[in-house]
Automatic annotation (TrEMBL):
It comes from the Eukaryota. It comes from Adineta steineri. It holds the Pfam family NHL. GO terms for molecular function: zinc ion binding. InterPro entries: 6-blade_b-propeller_TolB-like, NHL_repeat, TRIM-NHL_E3_ligases. The lineage of its organism: Eukaryota, Metazoa, Spiralia, Gnathifera, Rotifera. This is NHL repeat containing protein. Residues 1-21 form the signal peptide. CDD domains: NHL. Gene3D superfamilies: 2.40.10.500, TolB, C-terminal domain. NHL repeats lie at residues 148-191. Keywords: Repeat, Signal.
Length: 383
């Protein structure tokens, strides 16, 4: 491109010299101002005529160069993959974001059992020992009771709970609470403390598909179908919206110590389940008589297996995180890996990371864990 531009400039110079020579030969010896203007005028016109394609050519060259630079920038951005398994890590010094010590005041928790973080990074905590669900805003010192009694009283009416163990939200903003002690699931509209029973029968805990018996965990899909871990009946059941009974998905006597459950990403018929009895995470397909596979091994020389895993959470990349309660740590199982990585561990930490029973992420992938040792929620910032 530069050689073509140089040729045009040389040609222009040669043509200009030729015109000047012709003018010099034809011009009279005496200076005639009018004649000079007449001669120079075509020269100026010719110069503009020559310069115009040169300027257009320069602009075209610049546009091509800019386009190539932009193409290189786009290519560099789109071809650099993010390895979540290698790059996701968290500060091991935590920050207390909810709870002070055991109690029933607005700034306290008692044996908290679950944690849900919404898109606004607001925390919803199952305050198991106080029979309530507490909403904790980021930076807040006190919580607001959004389900159950603010004073910790238990009961079976529509405004009371008895030992809640898990909660989730549907796409319409309704909250679903596993009311373990009342053998039911309660649904709450935004801003209402009056719950509606959407699974289970009040006052009954039989093995009939209309009932639940000590349910422990819940998950929900985009169509508001509920997946409920019915531990007392050693089964997983699915309840459609407005259904009066559940559909059996998995049933096995080995599920009598399973407390946590979450549906697998990119699968329509498999779940992860935390089995405290065998210290394993089971991958189980609907209708199967046994688990497809189990996760238990951890890449740790001191504690190379799980010990009393209680709950799980998935990150946006599909990696699984397990609250390994009796090992006082959180273990990460990367996608397609059967060996866990320790990503958070208590080493006489302040605040305490001991006895984590629930884990969750906020929108910035900061890691939160619920410690029953301190009755607090601790935040570990992503690094």
């Amino acid at each position: 491109m530069h050689r073509g531009l140089l040729k045009i400039l040389i040609l222009f110079k040669q043509q200009l010299q030729l015109v000047q020579a012709q003018v010099h030969q034809q011009a009279p010896r005496q200076p005639v101002q009018v004649h000079r203007q007449a001669v120079l005028q075509p020269v100026q016109v010719h110069r503009q005529a020559v310069l115009q394609p040169v300027q257009v050519h320069q602009q075209a060259v610049l546009q091509v160069v800019q386009a190539r630079v932009h193409q290189q920038q786009v290519t560099t951005t789109t071809t650099t993959p993010f390895n979540s398994c290698k790059n996701l890590r968290w500060n091991q010094t935590g920050q207390i974001v909810a709870g002070t010590n055991s109690g029933s005041n607005a700034n306290q928790l008692k044996n908290p059992s679950c944690l849900y973080i919404d898109n606004n990074n607001t925390l919803y905590i199952c305050d198991y020992g106080n029979n309530r669900v507490q909403r904790w805003m980021q930076g807040g010192t006190n919580a607001t009771t959004v389900a159950g009694s603010s004073t910790g009283s238990s009961g079976s009416t529509s405004i009371l709970l008895n030992s809640p163990t898990d909660l989730t939200f549907d796409t319409n903003g309704f909250m679903y609470v596993v009311d373990n002690g009342n053998n039911r699931v309660q649904k709450f509209a935004l801003g209402s403390i009056n719950g509606t029973t959407v699974a289970g029968t009040i006052g009954s805990h039989s093995s009939a598909l209309t009932d639940l018996d000590e349910p422990t965990a819940i998950d929900i899909d985009n169509n508001s179908n509920m997946y409920i871990l019915d531990m007392g009946n050693t089964r997983l059941v699915k309840w459609a919206p407005n259904a009066i009974m559940g559909t059996l998905l998995i049933s096995d006597n080995s599920l009598n110590n399973v407390y946590g459950m979450i549906r697998m990403p990119n699968s329509s018929n498999q779940v992860y389940m935390c089995d405290e009895g065998s210290d394993e995470i089971h991958v189980w397909a609907y209708g199967a008589s046994s688990q497809n596979m189990s996760l238990q091994t951890v890449n740790d020389s001191q504690h190379n297996s799980l010990n009393n895993p209680t709950s799980m959470v998935l990150d946006p990349y599909g990696n699984l995180y397990v609250a390994d309660t009796d090992n006082d740590r959180v273990v990460m199982y990367c996608v397609n890996s059967t060996v866990g990585i320790v990503v958070a561990e208590d080493n006489n930490s302040v605040p305490s990371l001991q006895k984590p029973v629930a884990v969750a992420f906020d929108s910035d992938l900061n890691l939160y864990l619920v410690s029953t040792d301190s009755d607090q929620v601790v935040k570990l910032s992503r690094i």
